[in-house]
Automatic annotation (TrEMBL):
Domain of life: Bacteria
Gene Ontology molecular functions: aliphatic amine dehydrogenase activity; methylamine dehydrogenase (amicyanin) activity
Pfam families assigned to the protein according to its UniProt record, in alphabetical order: Me-amine-dh_L
Protein name per UniProt: Methylamine dehydrogenase (amicyanin)
InterPro entries for the chain: Amine_DH_Ltc (IPR016008), MADH/AADH_L_sf (IPR036560), MADH/AADH_Ltc_C_dom (IPR013504), MeN_DH_Ltc (IPR004229)
Signal peptide: none
Organism: Marinimicrococcus flavescens
Active site residues of this protein: 105, 124
Amino acid sequence: MIGKGLDRLVEGMSRRIAQRSSRRSFVSRLGMAVAGGVALPILPVDRRGQIKMAHAEEFAKTAQTTDMTACNYWRYCSSDGYLCSCCGGTYNQCPPGSQPSPTSWVGTCINPDDGQAYLIAYRDCCGKDSCGQCACLGLEGEYPSYRSELNNDIIWCFGAPTMVYHCSSAVLIGKA
């Protein structure tokens, strides 16, 4: 009995909709929905993340701008891994024999000299065995792995010729 009543209700609603709309308007609306769905992935993504200012300011209290081989160098606030500056490279370049990954995670760090927040791209250098020197674990602005662009626990050698991790570099992108 309940099934017959539900069938009548659905049939009645379907007939009313069919009487008030044409096939062309349905196809037109379906086309707009599909086109909108295709355009959705090209919308910009906020990769800066939401800085937790209390934590960023806490790191900035002890951060310094002179020793690029120390974990408290201001650009390393979200770095996780071995510093390329201790492995034969610089803070923003891979050592010889390793290649930068085309992918990266991002973080927002405060430069203690000017008090400004900057967006930093952390790029893993791949192709050689792990450096094993200057291991740093920065957590500023890190998100769980379901927000992978803001997670530093992933080996970011995607797209590189090899997935072997060597060290991590910190490239300044601009002001946050």
